[in-house]
């Protein structure tokens, strides 16, 4: 890897930073705006306030794919940065609950677009042997954004009096503006440029990233896969591609229904249920961000060495055990103090090492070039759909089922483990074009092993 490639991928992953910040800042804000001095929310309204952003995320996924095909990955990311900027200021200045919700949904459009565009952009730039760790930069950036939101909430808790929550939201305007500026200087995806017959520009980027010899070889592979006519959405539902689409969708769903955003969005509420005060709960939530960051970095060093599947197996087991312990502490009536914190940290470590980064890597690489934007949009749409259901229902489930709600998420970890063991094959070390050959013409592929078996 060269410095240029790393810097470009860091800028691409910065969309993930805003994604993480925007979705997690609400965890500290919700306890303030739910009070009678602001919006006076009940449990259902609190769930809607947290989860409404995901409606926007689903909309963003739908439109970002076609927009990135038409305008390019770079220009669509630039537009996304501007939406982040406008929505952060809109939420911070909102005087009415409906206005606040409207701008939260607009923010979700940017989050949804960034969640699918950042991994695609990085995957289409990165060399095969480094693609896993470079796409994992996006997950690292998401965790960094989440951690930054948690610490920002903690340090701003006494700033501005009753308007402290406005400052918690407004601060995101700064990284949004910086992302917009940095994106002006990054290159377009070389695969998109080849598809649009902009060969000299594509070759210049491939050469700068890979060197002349590798650039020529990769350019030939890209041209070979693009000899087939431009992919249509309906092609994803043909027998050969549909099984891959199903695997991508299920990976996205498992990342959410195993409970990650229950922990990320409602951590202060969980800690308060375990006996922590409001300030202490915000501090414990901030510490969670450090665990996420640490294990996201560790995962980056293993995803291209151990491979995708082993990390998924290890993480599913760890997450399942953590949720089982968390359920036991609440059900047995011992959900007090730092054991709850330890369970959540164990869960986050397992997620940060596995499902967090690896699912985004797999979704970005398993689909053919000509269908990638459509397929990633569908997989990401279902990811946010699952996120919406989990986020909306958790306050009610925690209030009604107490500790038994964590049994549900632990069970999903077990189902995820079984799915990974049976249906997921390894993709490490292959170019995107080699992976495509496995799907479209396995006899001509360089490796005879299929990437996925028929569910």
Number of domains: 1
What fraction, in percent, of the residue positions are helical? Answer: over 70%
Corresponding CATH architecture = Up-down Bundle
Could you report the average pLDDT, rounded to the nearest whole number? 82
Secondary-structure element order, N to C: HHHHHHHHHHHHHHHHHHHH
DSSP, total strands: 0
Tell me the CATH superfamily. MFS general substrate transporter like domains
Largest sheet: none
Low-confidence stretches: 442-455
Distance between the termini: 37 Å
What would your notes on this structure say?
The protein is globular and about 60 Å long. The chain has one domain: MFS general substrate transporter like domains (Growth Hormone, Chain: A), CATH 1.20.1250.20. 78% of the residues lie in helices and 0% in strands. The protein has 455 residues and is an all-alpha fold. The model is unreliable at 442-455 (pLDDT under 50). The two termini are 37 Å apart. Helix 1 (3-24) packs parallel to helix 4 (73-93) and helix 2 packs across helix 13. It has helices spanning 3-24, 26-33, 43-71, 73-93, 97-125, 128-155, 164-170, 173-183, 190-195, 199-210, 212-225, 239-257, 260-273, 278-302, 308-331, 338-353, 355-365, 372-401, 404-423, 432-440. 55% of the residues are buried.
């Amino acid at each position: 890897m060269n410095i240029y490639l790393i810097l470009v991928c860091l800028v691409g992953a910065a969309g993930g930073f805003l994604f993480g910040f925007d979705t997690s800042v609400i965890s500290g804000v919700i306890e303030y705006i739910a009070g009678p001095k602001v919006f006076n929310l009940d449990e259902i309204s609190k769930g809607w306030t947290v989860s409404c952003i995901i409606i926007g995320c689903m909309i963003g996924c739908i439109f970002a794919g076609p927009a990135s095909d038409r305008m390019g990955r770079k220009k669509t990311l630039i537009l996304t940065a501007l939406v982040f900027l406008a929505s952060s200021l809109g939420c911070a200045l909102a005087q009415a609950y409906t206005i606040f919700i409207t701008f939260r949904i607009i923010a979700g459009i940017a989050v949804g677009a960034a969640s699918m565009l950042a991994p695609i952009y990085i995957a289409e730039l990165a060399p095969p042997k480094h693609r896993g760790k470079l796409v994992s930069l996006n997950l690292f950036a998401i965790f960094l954004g989440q951690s930054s939101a948690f610490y920002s909430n903690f340090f701003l808790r006494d700033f501005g009096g009753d308007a402290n929550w406005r400052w918690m939201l407004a601060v995101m305007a700064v990284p949004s503006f910086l992302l917009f500026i940095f994106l002006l200087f990054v290159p377009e995806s070389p695969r998109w440029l080849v598809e649009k017959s902009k060969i000299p520009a594509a070759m210049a980027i491939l050469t700068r990233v890979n060197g002349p010899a590798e650039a020529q070889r990769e350019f030939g592979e890209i041209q070979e896969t693009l000899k087939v006519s431009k992919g249509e959405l309906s092609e994803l539902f043909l027998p050969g591609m549909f099984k891959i689409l199903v695997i991508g969708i299920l990976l996205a769903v498992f990342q959410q229904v195993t409970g990650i955003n229950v922990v990320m969005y409602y951590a202060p509420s969980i800690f308060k249920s375990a006996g922590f005060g409001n300030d202490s709960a915000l501090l414990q939530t901030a510490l969670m961000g450090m665990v996420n960051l640490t294990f996201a970095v560790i995962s980056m060093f293993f995803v291209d060495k151990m491979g995708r599947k082993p990390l998924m197996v290890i993480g599913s087991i760890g997450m399942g055990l953590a949720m089982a312990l968390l359920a036991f502490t609440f059900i047995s009536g011992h959900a007090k103090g730092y054991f709850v914190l330890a369970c959540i940290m164990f869960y986050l470590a397992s997620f940060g090492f596995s499902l967090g980064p690896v699912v985004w890597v797999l979704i970005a690489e398993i689909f053919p070039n000509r269908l990638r934007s459509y397929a990633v949009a569908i997989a990401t749409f279902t990811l946010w759909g699952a996120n919406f259901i989990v986020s909306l229902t958790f306050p009610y489930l925690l209030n009604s089922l107490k500790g038994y709600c964590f049994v549900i998420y632990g069970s999903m970890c077990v189902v995820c483990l079984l799915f990974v063991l049976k249906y997921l094959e390894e993709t490490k070390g292959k170019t995107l074009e080699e992976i495509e050959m496995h799907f479209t013409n396995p006899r001509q592929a360089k490796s005879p092993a299929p990437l996925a078996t028929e569910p």
